[in-house]
Amino acid sequence: MDNTPTTDTSAPAALGLLADKVAFITGAGRGIGAAAARLFAREGARVLLAARTEAQLKAVTEEVRAAGGTADYVVCDLADAAGARAAVDRTVDLYGRLDVAFNNGATIQTPGPMDQLPEADFDHVYAVNLKGVWLAMVAQIAAIRATARTGAIVNNSSVGSLMGNPELPAYGAMKRAVNSLTESAAVTYGPEGIRVNAIAPGHTATEMIRTWEADSPGLVERLKAHTPLRRAADPDEIAQAAAWLLSDRSSYVTGTVLRVDGGARA
Ligand SMILES: NC(=O)c1ccc[n+]([C@@H]2O[C@H](COP(=O)([O-])OP(=O)(O)OC[C@H]3O[C@@H](n4cnc5c(N)ncnc54)[C@H](OP(=O)(O)O)[C@@H]3O)[C@@H](O)[C@H]2O)c1
């Protein structure tokens, strides 16, 4: 099957990296997901924002609209199978298609050695950070197939998936499994022109890090010291990598886990 994109490379570059695309973003109420919603809309996409906290989703949606973008939101808990599917379907109901998806929403665990983690907490991290990504991907593949036919998915993993993660062992395990799901999906859906990649962010200034710092004082300074660029990423710097991987500019990239980590794993 020939799934070569039909982009005319002799024409002047389109206005936005994601011009004319419909994008679905989880965890879009704050942090990296909110930065992605703002960026993807600036780059020409119509965006649907999903997360649990309506007030945050509403605020980001209104911000995007005030800047001239097209956005809407849906409240959903990624741990709820029906809710995750309904959120993806809402994108197609609203905008008539799905081209790209950024599976970014995730939860952090209470930091500490794995023998101290309550079983219920492990189950929650599994339900949101791994099963939730799988549920969303399954719905997204179906929606892309039924509408745009070809497309791209980016899963937000973590640099913490690439090594032992003694402070966040369940979180690290789920993120490593997300890398595996990403690679498997890339192989399965590549022949029909659906690309699937992951990004592995390093230390990024968001609520997730503030929560971790509250439990582990001094964390932020430790992370900076272990990052060659000696600073945290701004959420927009992470969203930029996702935007590129979702765009036609990365048309021959699939099955990769792209570190966006200030050199932390170099
Ligand atoms: N910050 C970092 O240093 C860093 C580093 C590596 C990877 N990451 C990854 O980057 C992604 C974004 O994290 P962030 O740093 O931007 O954290 P954040 O500010 O805490 O944002 C997390 C987002 O996920 C949503 N979310 C959490 N649980 C959810 C659930 N059950 N159902 C639906 N949505 C849910 C949150 O909204 P609600 O709570 O309203 O649902 C929020 O919008 C995550 O995948 C994280 O693992 C972050």
Commentary on this structure:
It is a single chain. This protein is of the alpha/beta class and 266 residues long. It has one domain: 3-Layer(aba) Sandwich (Rossmann fold), CATH 3.40.50. A seven-stranded parallel β-sheet has the order 3-2-1-4-5-6-7, sandwiched between helices. Helix 1 packs across helix 8 and helix 3 runs parallel beside helix 4. The longest helix is centred in the middle third of the chain and has 28 residues. The mean pLDDT is 95. Keywords: NAD, Oxidoreductase.
- Sketch the topology as an H/E string, one letter per element: EHEHEHEHEHEHHHE
Number of domains: 1
CATH class: Alpha Beta
Approximate shape: globular
The distinct bound ligands, ions and cofactors come out as: NADP nicotinamide-adenine-dinucleotide phosphate
Question: In CATH terms, what is the architecture?
Answer: 3-Layer(aba) Sandwich
- Give unreliable regions as ranges: none
Contiguous helical run count? 8
Largest sheet: 7 strands, parallel
CA gyration radius, whole angstroms: 18 Å
Protein name: 2,5-dichloro-2,5-cyclohexadiene-1,4-diol dehydrogenase
GO molecular function: oxidoreductase activity
Pfam family, one: adh_short_C2
Family: Belongs to the short-chain dehydrogenases/reductases (SDR) family.
